[in-house]
Structures are given as C-alpha cells and as structure tokens.
Amino acid sequence: MRRVYRPETLFVVGSAPTLERSVRSRFAVSIGFMSRGALSGPMSHADESAFDRYRADVTRPLARLFREYGTSRARWLTIGLLANLVAQAASLFPPVVLGTAINALFQSGDGAYTLPFVPAAWVPATPQGQFWFSVALIAGSFVVTGVFTWVYGISANLFAHEVMHAVRTDSFTKLMRLDMTFFDDKQTGEVMAILNNDAGNLEMFLDNALMNSLRLLIMVGGIAFVLFALNWQLALVTLVAVPVIVAFTWWFMRVVAPRYRARQSAVAGFNTRIENGIGGIELVKTTNSEGYERKRVRDASRNLFETTMSVLRLSYFYRPGMELLAGLSFTATFLVGGYWLFTGTAPGPLTGTLEVGTFVTFILMTQRFVAPLAEVSNIVDQFQNARASAERVFGLSDIPVNIESDEDAVVLEDPEGVVSYDGVSFAYRDVFGEVASEPILRDVSFDAEPGETVAVVGETGAGKSTLLKLLLRLYEPTEGTVRVDGYDVEDLTLSSLRDAVGYVSQDTHLFDGTIAENVRYGRFEADDETVRRAARAAEAHGFITDLPNGYETRVGERGVKLSGGQRQRVSLARAVLRDPPVLVLDEATSAVDTETERAIQRSLDRLSEDRTTLVVAHRLSTVVDADEILVLDDGDVIEQGSHDELVDGGGAYAALWRAQTGEETDWGGDDD
Ligand SMILES: Nc1ncnc2c1ncn2[C@@H]1O[C@H](COP(=O)(O)OP(=O)(O)OP(=O)(O)O)[C@@H](O)[C@H]1O
C-alpha cells in the first residue's frame, strides 16, 4: 500500500526550509550581495518530475503573476515605485547642490547659482541667501530621501506580502482540491516546496529585485544624465568604466552559475542525509548504525562546505573587482578633472572649462554608481529564481482536477446508505488521467443494504482497500458504477457523499493535538459528551481515561505517543462520531489484541445494526457474522457468499478459515 503521508518527508519538509534559510542567510551575510533565491536548496531539483508537463506550458509566468495577483493590489506597487523614484532622485540632489554652491559661493563668489529642476525665481539674490538656500536644499533632499524610502519600503513590502499571502492560500486551496493520484505520485516535500521555497523566491523578487532594478535604473541613468548635463566630456571619462563593470558582472554570473548548481545539489544531498538519519532513527538505533549515518552526514556536509567555498572564492573576487573598476573610474575622473583644474586647460582632445564645483559633483557621483551596479548579479539571479518559482506555482494551479462535484451534482439528503457496486473495474491512473497500472479490480458487483455488513477478504495486494476507496470517490472506476442510495457516486456532491460515509483507513492518521481534537476532526462542533460517547462506542474511552490528561492528552506528531491499537480506536471513534449511515473499515482492528478486538467487534455489531458496513479484514474471525463476504484474488472476486456458504464451498476461503483456526493454508502468512 502506498502511503500518501510520509512521516519522514514531513519531517524534512518542516525543517529543511528552516535549515536552508539559516544556511542561506549566513551564506548571504558572508558574501553580502548574493541573493537568497540563488541559494534555494534542494527543491529546485526535486520538482523536476510531475509538474513538468504543466509547468512547461506556463508562458510568461511573471507577467501572469502580475496579471492574476498584482493588478488588484497595484496601488501599493504604484505607490512603492513612485516613492522609490522620488527617494532615489532626491538622493542625487545634494552632490549637485554642493557643486553649484562651490562654484557660485566658495570659489570666487561670482559664479551663477543655477540648479536643475529649481526655478530661478526661488533662488535668493544674495550669496548669503544662496548659502542658506543650499543648506536647506541639501537637508531637504535627505529628509525627502528618508521619508520616501520609508514609504517605498512599506508599500513594496505590503505589495509583496499581500501577493504572497494570496499565492500561498490559493496554492493550498488548489492542493486540497487535487485528486488523490496527484498525491500518490508526488513527494510531500516537493509539494511543500511550492508553498515554502517558491513563495519565498517570489516574495524576494517582488519585495527586492523589482525595486532594486528600479533603483539601479534611476541611479545609473540619473547619474549619467547629471554628469552629461554638467560636463559631457568628463562624463565620458567617468562612465567609460560602466560597460566594463557590466561585462565583468556578466562574466561573473556565467562562471558562478555552475558552482551555484553544484552547491544546490550539495544542500539537497545534505538535507536528504539528515532526513534519512532522523526519519529512520528507530532503525538506525536498533541496527547500531549511528556511526554509519554520522559518516554519511559528515561526507555530505564536507561536500556542502567545498561547494560553498567554491562559490565564495569567486564571490570574494567579484566584489573587490567591482571596487577596483570603480576605483579606476574614480582615479581617471580625478586625474583628468584634477589636471584640467590644475592646469586650467582641457587635457588631450577635451575642450572647454571645468569648474571646481562640477569636479566635486563628479567625484561624489562616481562613488555612487558602484553599489547599484553590484546589485545586477543579485537582481538577475532573483529574477531567474522568481521565474522558475512562478512557473511551478502556475504549473500547480494548471493541473486539472478530475474528481470534483459537477455543477449539477445532487446533494445526498438524509441518506439511507444503500451501497451497490455494479460491474466495477479499476486501474490506477497517473496525474494526467492516463491508466498507469494493470487492472486492480475486475468486474466487481455486490449490494449492501442498511443493517448489512459486507466483508472483503483476500491476500495482500488483492485490491481490497482500493475497492473501498472507490465508494468515497477517492478514485473513479474505469468501468462500472458505484452507487449510494441509487445515485452514481459521480453524480453526487463530494461533500454529501463523504458526509454519508465514515471511513477508517488502514493507515490511521492522527494530527498533532489532543485526543478530543482528533476524535472531533471532521465534526468540529461536537460537544465533549458526543466525543465521549463515540470513544465509548469505539472501546477507546477506557484507555483514554487512564492517560494522565485523559481526553486532553496530546498525541504527538502523527499520534506517535499512542500505540497502534490506541490510534486505531481513536480513528474509529472519529468515524463513529460523525454518525454516518455507511461505515467503511479498512482493517480497523488489525492492531488490537484479541480481547479488545472482541470488545470493538461487539460495539461494531451494535453500531452496524442500522448502518451499511463494509469491512476489510485479514482475521476471518471478525467477519464470520458478515452478511456477505467477497473473496478477492488479484482483482477478481473468486468467491462470494456468507461465511457458512464459503466454508461449505471448500474453496480459497475455506482453506484460509482452516488455516486461521489451526489447519494449513496458502494464506497463512497474510494473517496479522
Ligand atoms: N495509489 C496507488 N497507485 C498505484 N497503485 C496502487 C496504489 N495503491 C495501491 N496500488 C496497487 O494496487 C494493488 C491493490 O492494492 P490495495 O491496497 O487495494 O490492496 P489490498 O488488498 O488492500 O492489500 P493489503 O491487504 O496489503 O492492504 C496493489 O498491487 C498496489 O500495489
């Protein structure tokens, strides 16, 4: 039986992003300018399988992200963009004011006081007035930069986080709707990665890269504009480094990319090792394999160390390289401008004059464009990560849901619980709806009326659990019809169908929480007395009241603090509490001792008096009273009848019965 929930995976799902985040943030701190997205851990590799088909069809994912999620929140984005624009533009103003003040006031005091974007009428006439005006402008620019940076930060964050909130909840809603085949096919970890990692990448992009690219544009464009306006010849000298800086960044990104990929798989390998070691801790301990696991984790960690260092070595080279190029630009500006001022004549092919104030503005501005340019690698990186993540998010949202209530589906009201299987055949399908297995069931037919119990027996893998799941429409038959109260289950609303059926699966699942909460699951409004009644009916009340905190005892992750039999009884109580007309029990008593089983049996007999009950059992003693027993063999019903009829028939059932009551049989090994 393949399980939907994989506890080991769940563990890592919970911890990996945290682990990865801490690795990532430390790493990001150490190399300063690397983006978080670039270091996305194992997930980028793991989800290469089932989403591929839909993911590949997603076109322009970031545009779609804006279309589907951004437009309704565009006001925050617009405010953020405008505020960013104003803040960055204002931050360019002080060097320009300083240059003008030097030219007009500090040198000889006879230069004209003119500033871009400032009407001449505003400029005071006296030098003293112009000085105070300059002070006010510089201070004002810093205040404007501060205030608008604050506005920009808040609006950009609101936009990014509101979008992410919507993406996360929509993705989860979609996940809840998806067919079981999706979950059968998909690792829980991969699915969780969409909600954790991909949402994180998108958030980083919306929050950071988008605004930084604007900042970059304004900074480099604004600086170039100001410098060219002041002195285009010196501007050429200063900005000749920009194409070199861009080329250097491009080279860096190309060289570092494979090293990033190697590091990503090292993170994946490391997480997998931890997952294995801790997920299988019981096996590790009982086989004395701690040393073996330690070595595997040490090797994986060493690999992570080496790949990280290989990225860092290159990164340590990049940042100083950028500084050096900026330094060269600064030196060239200082050399040419300084010489120009010093000698009073334009050097080489240059012509015209240069004023001290303009020179100071140049020097200050040259310092400013390195930081935004150094962001280019981050921005491109975050952009690429966000693109891939948006593809995955939309890949998920595009997966079709096959099992859903039709628009004209019938609501099953006051169900009686008449169940009938009519010529049902079944094969598992893959997530794309294509048949992916040999037939698991062939032409199964039976009827069960309220008050009747139908038992399904057969060797392991014969298709018993699958048969029951078709009733809840977790899967759909490839042929034939499953009916409840005469309705094809495919014509009923899923919620009314599933409300009518209480299901205790083979893999009982408890959520972390109290016993009472677990019993109440699915009928959340049930009062304490109802919970107790259900527990009594499931023979669980006794052991629950023996626990230190009774119904308030926390059961631990997946119910690990309870025994297998106790978990089964809590699940049974949960099914009983819902008081459904149909009870489906898939080996609901396999993990309890004979005495408890008898007690449960007695209570089940009471419970099933006026209900329809379908049971899968390995222990035939639990099904002797069933109205009808189906013997499944590799998907075929090979015998069908009451216990007495089947024993008298002398076939497979009779042989199994003999084995379980002490005589020989082929099925002996299957008995629990
Ligand atoms: N989700 C699934 N996807 C594909 N094949 C599956 C899936 N679940 C079960 N199977 C296959 O279907 C067959 C029937 O499985 P099923 O769980 O119905 O058997 P079973 O009779 O209940 O077995 P057991 O007594 O061991 O629980 C098996 O061969 C199994 O490998």
Tally of DSSP β-strands: 10
Strand arrangement, major sheet: 6-7-8-3-9-10
Report strand %: 5-15%
Helices, by number, come to 24
Q: What is the assigned CATH homologous superfamily of the largest domain?
A: ABC transporter type 1, transmembrane domain
Domain ABC transporter: 426-659
Domain ABC transmembrane type-1: 79-385
Main location: membrane
Subcellular location: Cell membrane
List the helices and strands and how they pair.
Elements (H helix, E strand, L loop, with lengths): L6 H25 L11 H4 L5 H5 L4 H10 L3 H18 L1 H15 L19 H51 L2 H6 L2 H52 L1 H39 L1 H6 L3 H54 L12 H13 L1 H5 L1 H23 L20 E8 L14 E8 L4 E6 L5 H8 L7 E6 L2 E2 L5 H6 L1 E4 L10 H6 L7 H10 L3 H6 L17 H14 L4 E5 L7 H14 L4 E5 L11 E6 L2 E6 L1 H7 L2 H9 L12
Parallel strand pairs: 3-8, 3-9, 6-7, 7-8
Antiparallel strand pairs: 1-2, 1-4, 4-5, 9-10
GO molecular function: ABC-type transporter activity; ATP binding; ATP hydrolysis activity
Main location: membrane
Membrane topology: Multi-pass membrane protein
